[in-house]
Amino acid sequence: MSARLSAFAALNYSDSESDRETNGNHNDNTSRASAGANENDTPVAEMGGMAFDLGLGGAAMFVNGAAATDHFVPILHSNFSLVAEQNVVFGEQTQTVGLLPGNVLVVKGRYRVSVLCGVASVDSFVMTAGTAGQLVDASNLASLPCIRAAAGTPVDHSLPGLSASPFACVVQLESHDDRLDRLPLLYPHLRYLYACEHSKNSWSHQGHSYTFSALVEAEPNRVATSVPDSWAYQLGRLALSLGVTDRRNKIVLIVGNKNTGKSSFLKLLANTLLSAASTNAGVQILDIDPGQPELCLSGCISLSNITSPLIGTVHSFRVQKSTEVVKYLGFNSPNIQPLNYLRQLDQLIDSVITSKNTITLINSPGWVKGFGAEIIAHLNANLDITSLIQLSDELRDLDIIREIPWNRETEIVRLPAANRSTHSFNTYSPLIIRNAKLLSYMHYDAVSRVFDFNPLLLKSPYRLSYLTPTSDVRRMRSFNGIVGVSIFDSQGVSVADVPQSLECQYVALVTISIDTLLSLEGQDPKPSSSSPNCITESFIHSVPSTFHGLAIVHSVDTQNQTINIYTPIDTVTLSENLASGKEKLLLVKGRGEVPMDEIYSTQLTKGPAMYWNNFGLSCPPYVNASLNNDVIGGKTVGIRRNIQRR
């Protein structure tokens, strides 16, 4: 595939559009792209004789020729009261709620939602009594889900204990104590992740405590999923058009500046497609923003075929997927190593092209100029885009709509950004959200399916043997431990510095095939050392590899040639694969930083009597009491070179 990369663009990306004025604005909302055509030549789309404009700029929607205002009111709380024995039954661990048409139920916390009778919609995912209950994490990291009766549901459902029946549907909320609410103990930045000071929203009723609370009044910094009328219309229309089986893969590309609602629209569209009766194809998501991905960890891009809806705060490791391909980049921004980014993206694009009977949704990075525009142009050059969704409040098209030669068959849908709320909503910064998701990942037990946010230093790390510097491929082939370490962007890091640059850092656990090792034959031997065998990043970039997950390096023991790590991945399966001799393990370090709270937690260092006093220690083992700013290989945490085991 051709890599349409401009070196200038890679160094000159921008987060926002130019303020340059243009003549002639698009007023039609949906059109077919014309390569090189002037924007005024784009025709208004027609569906069954109906022309429509769904709200760019002036937020006007045209249905059958009649204009209507694009209705957008932010939802801050439930729009009805819960009255015991009338429309809600409080159980020991459950709340059973009857919903009438127009009722919107907003619930924060952790719970499993299921439908007892009727048809309900949870953030555009339609559920019936036969639908499996869905686990929901409704935290302040994302908009809170909205539960409502699906449109057109007859009001003829009743349930014992609910005197206000009949209802359009009856849903049940069940407490789910996965201990995710303990995250603020480790990461105090999130102390209001679920709770809120001076709130009248109750987490208990008549002695029953729940892991969730219905919002009957608004709370600071909380907003529910609010869908403009134009979005709702297009979600339904796209579900019908994309769900038609015609042996063609359908690809939807979502573009727009940061904070315009791209991720929200993608999740709503994915949920709509998963629950649409007309959709016979699989739904896969190409997640290409390594800074704020939804379906993989930060520093990665991925292609995931999802089988469960995306509701509330999405944790990539809990989403049900039939297939998944993850590429580790090691950086949160594509423009740091643009050539490698496009190389890894091309491998995912190849998987999209070879997939059968699928609908692929692509959430582009929030840059629409510079290298961000190059990425979008690269996608257009290598994929047949079915629908292009532009989210913007500008009175004109984004530059990428006018300047990129889109296929004439590409449908362009123009929608308003969903950020027009006048309500003060201060979201967490991208850094805090990334840290929260990484901490959740590192502290999740996939076997028990609960989180343990006790500091990792309280646990014994895994010990892995590593290979010392060698160019002997036969030696690598016979070694079942870590055959090599690669440090991305490692200018100035010597072989002797490798152990210290790894300690207290995130590393990726990747494997390569035995045959791939053959390409290392004849590489320049490294100086004799007790440090791990170093492999160039150019080799890692150029060969196929399998990403297994992230780990934190606890310490490097150069005397015994072992690396001690913490990781939540399935180490048993990985060990079996390595023992078979078909795969070889590498550690790859990017520039991801471990949150200070992970290594130097306030749980261990503050209080009347520090935890470590019980062991006769003045500070946690392996970590200096006073941290320094010395940087080696991108490392910013001071550590004590001590590999003593507990």
What's the structural blueprint in terms of helices and strands?
Layout: H1 7-10, E1 30-32, E2 46-47, E3 50-51, E4 60-63, E5 66-69, E6 88-90, E7 94-99, E8 105-118, E9 120-122, E10 125-127, E11 134-138, E12 146-149, E13 169-175, H2 183-186, E14 204-205, E15 208-209, E16 212-214, H3 229-242, E17 250-256, H4 262-275, E18 282-287, E19 300-306, E20 321-328, H5 338-354, E21 358-363, H6 371-382, E22 387-391, H7 399-403, E23 411-415, H8 430-442, E24 444-445, E25 450-451, E26 462-465, H9 473-478, E27 482-487, H10 498-502, E28 506-513, H11 514-517, H12 537-542, E29 546-557, E30 562-566, H13 571-579, E31 583-589, H14 596-599, H15 602-605
Parallel strand pairs: 17-21, 17-22, 18-21, 22-23, 27-31
Antiparallel strand pairs: 1-23, 2-3, 4-5, 6-7, 7-13, 8-11, 8-12, 8-13, 8-16, 9-10, 9-12, 14-15, 18-19, 19-20, 24-25, 26-30, 28-29, 28-31, 29-30
Helix pairs in contact: 3-4
